[in-house]
Amino acid sequence: MAEAAPGGSGGQLRPVEPVSDGVLSVRGGVGGISFQLEELDTGARELDALARDLAVVELGIYRVWESLGSYQRDDPSSGAEALTAVWEGQRSVASVREEMDRLAGGVRACQLEYSAAETANLLITQLHWDASWLWGRQVVDLGLAPDWRDWRPNTASTEAIASSDPVVAGTILAALLGVRQSPVDAAVKMALASGMTGSSVPTLARTLLDRVLPGLKPRPVRALKEGSADIDLDASPAGLLARAGEVEDAGPGQIEVIQTTSGGRDAFIVIIPGTQPGNTGGPNPFDEAGIGEALGYGSEYTAGAIRAALREAGAEAGDQVVAVGYSQGGIHAMNLSQDRAFLAEYNLKYVLTAGSPVGAISPGPGVSSLHLEHRQDWVPGSEGLPNPDTRDRVTVTLNGLVRTPPGEDAGLGPGHRLTNYEAGARAVAASPDPSLVASTALLAGVVGAGGTAKVTRFQLVRAPKPPASARQLPMPGPGRIVLPGQSPQPESRAEPRMVSGGGAAGVSGGGRRGAGLPPAKSR
């Protein structure tokens, strides 16, 4: 929080609230409370160090004064005058040292008070003592949505609900994976019997796929190169999210790797789409079962396929990488930030997500991230954990009221539509908030401002299921939740779509929809 005094008044510094237009709420980054607490702690330690240095100087001057003691009875025009000057110098240093000690103590007391307030707020949230306020806010959100199709839990209430009870968390997980409630209830009982405390959607996801629905358990994924082309890249957050939409339109299992050059150095951008419903557990790793791999298994196989795609696209060990993902794709993108094999091979600098539950993912050192969430979107809160407030991690909540366009499928609600997140990303780029200015500047420093870039498309293909066991296990049934704003699709072909010759077929030419792409679906 900035501090200021009235212009020309010489008055005491006082806190000044950050400027807000009400459209965006920003948490984390260089303007976040956690970073400011770290800065207070750093400032207190530096003041302590200065005070210690001054104490050493003060002691040295005192010893000089002692050594001049034999001259104190001499004529004032001799050494007595020097003795007096040394004494006054020692007292001046002592005065400055005492002020440093006072300032350090004040800063440390301020830090402790802020920390105590943050701890109390966190405790209130964890114990759900704010439930009445939360439900009141939920009612307001519902009241702002005139179309009943847009009535959805908001992000904050979903986080609170998902973290409060494992049974409720299981219901949310069933909606994400598109499975019947009964196998999820069985997984909840197994997880609790195994000693799970509290509510953990990632733990439930792993238990469900390991022990109840092994037919949906993650399987190896391979990356098949489709072709390359030059594009005119918009490297802003909005432009990169638009690329995620184009990749989703390109067909099931598609990702793309964009090679840019900035400051004479190559960087690579990985674009990962959202969930693509249909033939759950089939060859497309971005189906509903892919959410289970992302939440419960750290994107173990998908991350390996992305590493292979980067190599095929020309990335070398140590090259800088930016990962961009929407919805499920954002979880995969963020999982790269904690994947040891990926971080050992590439220098992941930045992750951009939109509408993704990534609060439980702890990135490695040196990885910055920007997370976009919409207040009307329940999906980012489905994990039950808010994103941590750190210097390198910025979370933006989009507060503007959005509605499902007439005649279009409501899907998971208007807050989860990619087009709304693209609009929010444009507002992020225009915001003067210090956290957003620093975050977007870091992104631009890695990938540049845009221009001509090389894009390579890949299709990720999940390995076939192993032979079925004698005991038939329950599989996803009707009533599957359709992810983001899409209609149910027919089962996709098991064979990957190949492009011969390594040409530009199926690769965008830089517009909203490139040549060779199917008609855009509503998002």
Sum up the structure in keywords.
3 domains; two-stranded antiparallel sheet; alpha/beta; 9-stranded mixed beta sheet; 523 residues; 16% strand; disordered N terminus; 43% helix; disordered C terminus
Structure commentary:
The chain is an alpha/beta fold and 523 residues long. The protein has 3 domains: 32-126; 142-215, no CATH class; 222-402 and 412-464 and 482-489 and 496-502, no CATH class. Helix content is 43%, strand content 16%. It contains 14 helices and 11 strands. The strands form 2 sheets. Strands 3-10-9-8-7-6-5-11-4 form a 9-stranded mixed β-sheet. Strands 1-2 form a two-stranded antiparallel ribbon. It is elongated. The chain starts with a strand and ends in a 61-residue tail after the last strand.
Q: Quick summary of this structure?
A:
The protein has 523 residues and is of the alpha/beta class. It has 3 domains: 95 residues; 74 residues, no CATH class; 249 residues, no CATH class. It has a 9-stranded mixed β-sheet. A two-stranded antiparallel ribbon has the order 1-2.
